[in-house]
C-alpha cells in the first residue's frame, strides 16, 4: 500500500531492529525498545508526530508507542494487531520453545517455490493453522529467515512478547490512556494467527474506533486485499481529527477510577 499512500502523504516504512535490512543489535527486543527506536527515527527525520500503522507485532509496537510517546502520535492504524488478547496461533507459540531456532532454520532452508507448493497441502490437512490467502506471505517470511542473525532476532522478538501459552502482553489495560485518539482496527475475517474477535472486543474500549473487516482475508490483508483496505484507510486519514496530547488530560486519565 506504500506507493498509493505516498502519492498524498509522507510515508516512513522502517525495518525494525533485527528485521529486514536493519542492524541486528545484541540488546533489547521488547515492545518498549522498538517504540523508542521509532521515536528516535521520527526525531532524526524531523517529524514531530505521525499516524502510526502497525501490523501484527507492529500493532503491538504501535500501541506501545502511543502509550510511551502520546505527544508524537496523531492516529493509530492496527492491522491484524497483536497485544489485544492472549490467543495466538500454535505456530507462533512454537517459536518460543527450546530449539525453535533450529526448527525455523530448517524450514527457512526449504526453497521458497517448494514451500509455496507444500503449504496449501498442509492447509488442506490442518486448515486451522493458517488462512489459505496467507500461504505466499508465510513462504516469503520463512525464506527471509535463512539469514542466521535475522533468525535470532525473530526468535528473540517472539520470546519478548509470546509464551507457549500465547501472547504475554495485553495492551487493553492501557487503552483508557488513549481516550480521544482515533484508531482504525482492520482485520481479515479468516485470520488464523490472531483471532478476529480481539479487534471487535477492543473496539468497545476505545473512544474513537473505526472498524474494517475484510471478508475472506487472513492475517495479511494489507498484502492480499490491499484494494479493499486502502479506501477505508484513506477515508480514515482524511476525515479523522489528529490526536492532541495535553499533560493535564493525561494526568486526569492516570487517576484511579472510582
Automatic annotation (TrEMBL):
Keyword Hydrolase: yes
A GO term, aspect molecular function: hydrolase activity
Domain AB hydrolase-1 per the UniProt entry, residue ranges: 1-225
Superkingdom: Bacteria
The entry's keywords: Hydrolase
Pfam short name (any one): Abhydrolase_1
InterPro entries named among the record's database cross-references: AB_hydrolase_1 (IPR000073), AB_hydrolase_fold (IPR029058), AB_hydrolase_sf (IPR050266), Epox_hydrolase-like (IPR000639)
PANTHER family for the chain: HYDROLASE, PUTATIVE (AFU_ORTHOLOGUE AFUA_2G14860)-RELATED, MONOACYLGLYCEROL LIPASE
Protein name: Alpha/beta hydrolase
Source organism of the structure: Paractinoplanes aksuensis
Amino acid at each position: 500500500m506504500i506507493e498509493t499512500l505516498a502519492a498524498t502523504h509522507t510515508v516512513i516504512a522502517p525495518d525494525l531492529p533485527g528485521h529486514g535490512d536493519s542492524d541486528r543489535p545484541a540488546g533489547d527486543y521488547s515492545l518498549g525498545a522498538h517504540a523508542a527506536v521509532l521515536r528516535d527515527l521520527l526525531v532524526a527525520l524531523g517529524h514531530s508526530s505521525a499516524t502510526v500503522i502497525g501490523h501484527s507485532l507492529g500493532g503491538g509496537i504501535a500501541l506501545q508507542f502511543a502509550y510511551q510517546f502520546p505527544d508524537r502520535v496523531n492516529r493509530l492504524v492496527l492491522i491484524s494487531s497483536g497485544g489485544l488478547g492472549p490467543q495466538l496461533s500454535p505456530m507462533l507459540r512454537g517459536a518460543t520453545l527450546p530449539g525453535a531456532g533450529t526448527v525455523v532454520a530448517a524450514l527457512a532452508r526449504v526453497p521458497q517455490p517448494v514451500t509455496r507448493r507444500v503449504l496449501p497441502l498442509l492447509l488442506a490437512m490442518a486448515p486451522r493453522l493458517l488462512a489459505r490467502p496467507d500461504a505466499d506471505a508465510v513462504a516469503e517470511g520463512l525464506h527471509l529467515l535463512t539469514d542466521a542473525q535475522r533468525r535470532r532476532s525473530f526468535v528473540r522478538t517472539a520470546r519478548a512478547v509470546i509464551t507457549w501459552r500465547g501472547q504475554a502482553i495485553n495492551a487493553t489495560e492501557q487503552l483508557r490512556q488513549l481516550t480521544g485518539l482515533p484508531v482504525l482496527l482492520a482485520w481479515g475475517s479468516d485470520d488464523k494467527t490472531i483471532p478476529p474477535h480481539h479487534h471487535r472486543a477492543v473496539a468497545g474500549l476505545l473512544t474513537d474506533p473505526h472498524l474494517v473487516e475484510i471478508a475472506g482475508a487472513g492475517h495479511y490483508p494489507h498484502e492480499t486485499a490491499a484494494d479493499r483496505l486502502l479506501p477505508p484507510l484513506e477515508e480514515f486519514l482524511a476525515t479523522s481529527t489528529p490526536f492532541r496530547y495535553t499533560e493535564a488530560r493525561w494526568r486526569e486519565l492516570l487517576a484511579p477510577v472510582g
